[in-house]
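Example record for the data management plan.
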Amino acid sequence: MWWWKREVPHHLPLAEGPIVPGCSDLMTEFSRDGCFIRLFYPTSLSHIKKHSARWIPWLADDMYFEGFARVLQIWKFLIKFVVWLLAGNCHIPAVWNADVKQEGGKLPVVVFSHGLGATRFFYSSVCVELASHGFVVAAVEHRDKSASASYYYKSEDGYTDVTPTWMKFKVIGLGPGHYAARKKQVTKRVQECRKVIDILEKLNSGIYIENVLGRDFKLGQFKDRLNLTSLTMMGHSFGGATALLTLGCDCRLKFGVILDPWMFSLKEELDLPNIIKQPLLFVNTETFHVATNFNAVKRYTDSTPDECGKRTVFTIKGTTHESQADTPHLVGYWLNWKMKKLPPVIASRINNHLILDFLQKNIGLNHELDTSFLTAHAESVIEGIIEWRQ
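Corresponding structural encoding:
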């Protein structure tokens, strides 16, 4: 067919599920107190490559380069050069502003919280994969200054003039005030996640929500389409801690998927392991959990109170903290250079299949999940968590 011959742009790995994923941005309120979300969702389209003209660049705005440079404490021109050299203009293989799938049952929903220095698009590989299996993913861009950068509009006039107000990543040094600063951030993050759930409930009820970014995408398509009875909270690193704290204070969440959690901001939440009642999946990488973080995670995974749901724990060997994000697909591995690692695509697929297997067992999918890939790579997955000793 003619469209198979069309040249497609450089892109993240294509999703493996049977459904073509779509995506769109939603920003609420002319204020920094509003929410900024990237929605990934299933569509009724067929053949993802046929719609490659509507794939969007991974980097949402050049200002994020400045943010990443601030996070890494390197020059902006250097990170721009590295990304240009190794990744080019990489695209997300999801159809921008496509219509939401209307046929079939209601769509299960995941709220995703990003890690320190990340963004709403930083985990597009995971989010696109989930959307290709029928999930709606609301990927939050946090405004606690833990994102590499973010922006909002102060007024409708500001949007008309295309003059967003940017929020820079806040560099927080180690020392006496470090914990208090991170605690303040994680508290703000939890508030934002709960506000996103409020938004999802309104969308499902057909209540009008103004999208500050415009009306090209019809939010009314989500009316009566969301299955919020099986709502899942997911997060990576700082987002993993955010997910745990949100699970502990919002009973609307029914399941949790925790990816390589950075536990520092929860060190005084001594009762949280017993407060969280929902079934949890922990997917860890091999090199992230030094002694303090390892011991903090073990408080959640070693014992499960009778009234709490099952807690499943895996570690993927040959992976680093970045393996669960998009960056290895863009610029390769930056961490633990001397360590032999899994190829980025293999590491991502194992991570995604472990998540999907957990969701299939607890929520169910509308199609059979192929488990042969996990079986073939069983030697790369171990039960439990590894303490990293360099």
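Summary line stored alongside the record: The radius of gyration is 20 Å.
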